[in-house]
């Protein structure tokens, strides 16, 4: 049995990282975000692409990661002839961007504006109906090409969302350890690697060491 580790090709994290997104995209981009997220990120992204002499096309996300919404965006994407997908926002926006990139055979950059789950890094999109009822899981062949975390933006999100993410992350080590001990296969169809186990343990250790301080900072909307 093979050991397999799965992860995004590149992970970028830092204050004001969004201002450098075009430098990492290196292609004309199709950007989706909901109305609120668009209002706080569009100008930053536009300026970044202007500096790199690249085109940025923006399209509002309608709110549900549904097959109809993915198909709607796919048709617009064909007209614009963009070369890379960028999803900015919360889970449903990011899952839609991942699915759109998969069906369009294009690379994808994921830009979370909240830290409530580990969904931005996963090779999975959760599909819903247009009415918000669960439809199916779309298992993707690879993780996102780039995940970009602008901590200045994330620090301004409601602190309860960071608390949710910390709760989700606390379970990571124990889930990974249980899988390792039982011989369960991961989403890549293999056994976990020592590198994956080390990262899972580091996740737990970091939360225990810095979690409380991180919550205080988030409650004050301060990036530390």
Record keyword descriptors for this entry:
single chain; 224 residues; alpha/beta; Rossmann fold; 2 domains; 6-stranded parallel sheet; two-stranded antiparallel sheet; 46% helix; 19% strand
What is the gist of this entry?
The chain has about 220 residues and is of the alpha/beta class. It has helices spanning about 20-25, 35-50, 65-80, 90-105, 150-155, 160-180, 195-220; strands at about 10-15, 30-35, 55-60, 85-90, 110, 125-130, 135-140, 145-150.
Percent strand: 15-25%
**What CATH architecture of the largest domain do you see?**
3-Layer(aba) Sandwich
The overall number of domains is 2
Biggest β-sheet strands, sense, barrel? 6 strands, parallel
What is the average per-residue confidence, as pLDDT, rounded to a whole number? 97
The count of β-strands is 8
- Measured distance between first and last alpha carbons: 42 Å
Shape estimate? globular
Low-confidence stretches: none
How much is the radius of gyration in Å? Answer: 18 Å
**Could you state the oligomeric state of the chains shown?**
single chain
Helix/strand order: EHEHEHEHEEEEHHH
CATH topology of the largest domain: Rossmann fold
Briefly note the structural class of the backbone.
alpha/beta
CATH class group of the largest domain: Alpha Beta
Sheet with the most strands: spatial strand order: 1-8-5-4-2-3
Report helical residue fraction. Answer: 40-55%
The number of distinct helices, counting runs of at least 4 residues, comes to: 7
Describe this protein's structure.
- This protein is of the alpha/beta class and 224 residues long.
- It folds into two domains: 10-154, Rossmann fold (3-Layer(aba) Sandwich); 159-219.
- It is built from seven helices and eight strands, in the order E-H-E-H-E-H-E-H-E-E-E-E-H-H-H.
- The strands form two sheets. The chain has a six-stranded parallel β-sheet with strand order 1-8-5-4-2-3, with helices on both faces. Strands 6-7 form a two-stranded antiparallel sheet.
- Strand 4 (84-89), helix 4 (91-104) and strand 5 (108-112) form a beta-alpha-beta unit.
- Helix 3 (67-80) crosses helix 4 and helix 6 packs antiparallel against helix 7.
- It is globular.
- The N and C termini lie far apart (42 Å).
